[in-house]
Amino acid sequence: MATSLLLSDSDSADIVVAVHVSSLVSGGNFKTVLEFVKMIARNADIDTGNVQFGLVFYGLDPEVVFDIDR
């Protein structure tokens, strides 16, 4: 699986990835999703501030996974 995030030097982007987390998602499937999200984040221009990256977790039972200020 190959993907690239192409932005010119003057472009900026907000990237939000929705990730399903529940007991219905097997460990193998979650690892695949995790690797995909890591690949997107690794190739995004986050350090310069041109790209803001966020994750939204959803599932069967709503819960706070982490607070954004941590």
Secondary-structure blueprint of this entry?
Blueprint: E1 13-20, H1 27-43, E2 51-58
Parallel strand pairs: 1-2
Key descriptive features of the protein:
70 residues; alpha+beta
Give a description of the structure.
This protein is of the alpha+beta class. It contains one helix and two strands, in the order βαβ. Strands 1-2 form a two-stranded parallel ribbon. Strand 1 (13-20), helix 1 and strand 2 form a beta-alpha-beta unit. The longest helix is centred in the middle third of the chain and has 17 residues, at 27-43. The protein is elongated. The relative contact order is 0.29. The mean pLDDT is 76.
In short:
The protein is of the alpha+beta class.
Structural class: alpha+beta
Assembly annotation: single chain
What proportion of the residues is helical, as a percent range? 10-25%
Arithmetic mean of pLDDT:
76
Major sheet summary line? 2 strands, parallel
Low-confidence runs of at least 5 consecutive residues: none
Termini separation: 31 Å
Number of strands: 2
Percent in strands: 15-25%
